[in-house]
Amino acid sequence: MTEQQFPQHPRVTETMDLINHAMALYDRLIEAQNTNSTTATDSTKTVAVTVNHFRWLTGVWIAPGTRTIGAAAFNKRLAEALANANALAQESADAIEAEHTRELDIAQRKVEEMVARYEGAPPSAVSAPVALPTLPTATPAASNDRW
C-alpha cells in the first residue's frame, strides 16, 4: 500500500486541473487545424481542388474530357476552383478559431473565479473546486471530399 506522506494541497490540484484543461484546448485546436481540409469546384464542376487548413493544395480532380477545352480555359477553371476552396478554408479556419476563443474565454473565467475565491482567504479555507466543462473527445470528422 503506497500512501502519500504529504497529500497534494487542494489549490494545487485545482490549479493543475485548470492547466491540463488549457493544454487540452490547445491540443484540440492543433488537431482541428491539422485534420481540416476543404474541397471546392469551379462553376462547371469539371475541376475540383482540395486544400488543407494551411491552404496547401492537397488534391486535384479533373473531369474526363476536360483537356479538350484548351489551356487558357482550363487555367481559368482551376483558378476559380482554387479561389472557392481558399474561401471555404478561410470560413472553416474562422469557425475553428471562434470555437477555440470561446472555450478559452470559459477557461479564463474559471481561473478568475478561482483567484477571486482564494484572494484574501486563509490557506486552510478551501471551497469546492471549479467545475470545468468536459471536452468532447476527438472523433474523425466526416470526409468532406466529394470526389
UniProtKB/TrEMBL annotation:
This is ESX-1 secretion-associated protein EspL. It comes from the Bacteria. Residues 122-147 are annotated as: Disordered. Keywords: Coiled coil, Plasmid. Residues 71-117 form a coiled coil. It comes from Mycolicibacterium alvei.
